[in-house]
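Residues determine shape. Next comes a sample protein:
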Amino acid sequence: MWKHLNQLEEWGVPIVKNRQGYRLHEDVELLSKPGILAAMAPHSRRMLKELLIVDRVDSTNTLVRNRLAETAGSGFVCLAEQQTQGRGRLGRSWVSPFGRNIYLSVGWEYEGGAAVLEGLSLAVGVAICDAIKGLGVVDVALKWPNDILLEGRKTGGVLLEMTGDPVGRCQVIVGIGINFAMPPDAEIDQPWADLSGAAGMTRNLLTGAVLSELMPLLRDFQSRGFRHYREAWERFNAHRGQRVRLTVGREVVEGILCGVSDNGAVVLQTEGRQRAYSGGEISLRGLE
């Protein structure tokens, strides 16, 4: 028992000790394979090759990438209760406490390399928003290129990694992080939100809803491309018509965000003309 209690404390799970014994400081809903499968639509469930849930891992993306190196194919899904080296865009750390949030990666195989993947991370954002909205949360939106916002604050993100032939058969690892019940004292360097206030929502229900939207999207994306999801992305566009600052390497551009192109590039209006940018990071800080 001591071994298990010490392990939980090492994982950051608060334990209350008193005269009667030991208890968790608060309830923890563990991920459940039967619970997730029950929450999935039948057609999406049939696309699963494997659903793996682990207690602790460095990164779910890394685990999926290693699995794809052993066995190619599509539909391998990994979830973790905790990540020790979770990553966001640009190498940033993704705060991943035990049993609190969603840390999810999916592996999928495509023909045609990087060219067929343009806009995929944006389309995945649409799937996540559709899932969250379908569970009754209204104020969910997207910040280009891959942030999920709740009431204007970050609540999730998408990270894609590709292996294989950049112009032929390749494997894509779709990493998703969603704040479900983040500790209030979490050390995050930007305004954030979680879904803990959503009535009736559980981690297993949310995971099932996300996979229900995500699996058919990944299956169909090569034939459809981002063009098919562009209108839906614009409906969730948090900053359309607003003045933003785009940082692309050492270049900084300010302009009005007009939307996104058919390949997922962000379109800004600057000095009376529109220009598309395929990379970079959007910020509103310091702008009126």
